[in-house]
Amino acid sequence: MSTDPRSRAWLEVDASALRANFLAVRSVVGEKSRILAMVKADGYGLGALETVRTLEPLGPWGYGVATVDEGARLRRAGIRRPVVLVSPLPAGQEVAARTEDLTVTISNLQALERLLKAFAEVSAEADPSTMVLPAFHLEVDTGMGRAGVPWRDLPVLLPRFQDLAQQGGAVLEACFTHFHSADEKGGEESVELQWNRLTQALGGLSLNDLPHGRKGDEPWIHAANSAAIFRSPGVAAHGCRPGIFLFGGCPGWNLPVPRPVASLRARIVRVQKALPGSTVGYGATHRAQGEEWWATVGVGYGDGLPRLLSNRGEAVLRGVRVPIVGRISMDLTVVECSSAMGGDPPRVGEVVTFLGQDGAAGVSLEEMAEWANTIHYEILTGFSPRLPRIWNATD
Ligand SMILES: *Cc1c(COP(=O)(O)O)cnc(C)c1O
Fold first, then answer.
1. pLDDT of 128 higher than 70
2. For the chain, what percentages of helix, strand and coil (3-state, to nearest 5) are there?
């Protein structure tokens, strides 16, 4: 028997906000752009399966994951759309990727050779009448420097990839690159530079000159992350790979803000009127100035609440912001409640909001990330498995 998921600390995920954010992307990129919804790292920490179930009716082209296991989980849940592994496939995982019908990203000739060998092995066991030519994507490194064929090498290598693919009965379905600075002020320029490198490396070819894709479809290019979608929508005309925006994270400087998707809430487990001079937490780093009201909340860094919020971050009680006092522990965090009381002390069992809205007040992902000296991506993916994810479709 599992206990009430709202008994201690939990993450609320707003499925209707996720849908609205997807539709906002759709309206910017247009109906023709193939949307590869990025659901890696368990849907940015919020739950990949629930994310995919929420997005399925909206018709993304497919889903992007980082590992074979992430892709296999989607297949096991019955997802039939393309699932693309956007990270380089570790050697030895080719058969597993093929068996799970995952689309592998290729960065060099050796990787393609290994993949084609696996294709041959697996298809020897399959019924040829039901076989669709297996597809792969080619990543081009236009400045990110972590994966892909260097753009300078592509003009020489592209025909070799194509020849190999043809001999091996595989299809180069799409080429992609990844932008490094689309989120930043002035990001248009870096996007344009990387985009030009990609298209020039492809021989200045129009997309239609690329080899044919699966089922006779034209092959295509996907490049834009959330930031580039909104900063330079033209590069998303054929396809795009939104992630953070779907999950409620602002994609970058001066870009549209999505609807918030995640809220972190936890209950008070103890209330203490602290006399002047009392100390709280490891290292006794906070000392009550006058009389203070300390509420101990059942959430800590073991849940993914960043410890850097100690004596720095804030939470919300009764629609009012309250400071986090003392060091955050693994399982417990103390907030000082005087500002939220109005003469009525906090009670055990009351809910404190660490992320998201509570009445008139709230804490945004970006604010929490700033307190923690990090980015909102790391906040989301850092929430630990101990927090139940509660998907509350409000419509
Ligand atoms: C994570 C990822 C994305 C999504 O980026 P966001 O900034 O979250 O929109 C797109 N492409 C690749 C290759 C990624 O790894």
1. no
2. 35, 25, 40
Give the nearest ligand 1 atom to 86 CA. Answer: 13
Out of 22, 28, 38, give the residue to mutate to test ligand 1, the one with the largest number of ligand atoms within 8 Å of its CB: 38
Question: Residue whose CA is closest, atom 14 of ligand 1?
Answer: 86
Distances (CA, A) of 378 to 17, 274, 300, 383: 20, 34, 16, 9
Active site members: 40, 282
CB 361 within 8 Å of CB 323: no
For the segment 24-56, what is each residue's pLDDT rounded down to a tens digit? Answer: 999 999 999 999 999 999 999 999 999 999 999
Cα–Cα distance measured from residue 343 to residue 202, given in angstroms and rounded to the nearest whole number: 69
Distance set, CA 267 to CA 60, 87, 307, 309, 332 (Å): 37, 39, 18, 18, 10
Checking if the pLDDT of 211 tops 50, the result is no
Q: Position 357: which residue type? A: Q
* Tokens encoding 253: 């400087």
Average pLDDT, the chain: 93
Q: How would residue 215 be classed by pLDDT, with cut points 50, 70 and 90?
A: very low
| Cα 385 to middle of ligand 1, angstroms | 22
Bridge partners, residue 344, by sequence: none
Residue 209: pLDDT above 90? no
Tokens found for residue 29: 């990129």
Which residue's entry shows tokens 């992350």?
A: 225
pLDDT digits (tens, 9 = 90+) for 331-365: 999 999 999 998 899 999 999 999 999 999 999 99
Range 298-336 burial, b when 16+ CB lie within 10 A, else e: bbbbbbbbbeebbeebbbbbbebbbbbbbbbbebbbbbb
Q: Position of tokens 């970006």?
A: 366
User: Ligand 1: which atom is nearest the Cα of residue 176?
Assistant: 13
Q: What is the pTM of this model?
A: 0.95
